[in-house]
Amino acid sequence: MSRSSHGLSALPSQTIAPLERLGLRLRAHRVQREWTIAEMAERLLCSPNTLRALESGKPGTSIGLLAHALWLFGEIDSIDGVAPAPTGLAAKRRVRRSAAQQGTAGVIAENERDF
């Protein structure tokens, strides 16, 4: 029986071509560096078959593996351009307070009693 999930088989056809193009670009980077599939797979700490799946644009390939490949090629910053946050959302972002600002665990500070 195949290990693919039902979710992956139901992907819209519009998602397949961009994944395949991404895989081809990754392959071009590997070929430019004259790395074999075995060498690249060793650098990525994955099997050659998993690398082939990544280069083929298979949707079930790990996003972590993709990020690792981009890092190896010096292209990790390009991942920041994927699905940028809407500008309105970024302005309303919550900021987490540091541990020093939080005080004692389980105790409500005076500045938090605004209800």
Automatic annotation (TrEMBL):
Protein name in UniProt: Transcriptional regulator with XRE-family HTH domain
Taxonomic source organism: Variovorax boronicumulans
Short name of one Pfam family: HTH_31
Domain HTH cro/C1-type span(s) in chain numbering: 26-58
GO molecular function terms listed in the Swiss-Prot or TrEMBL record: DNA binding
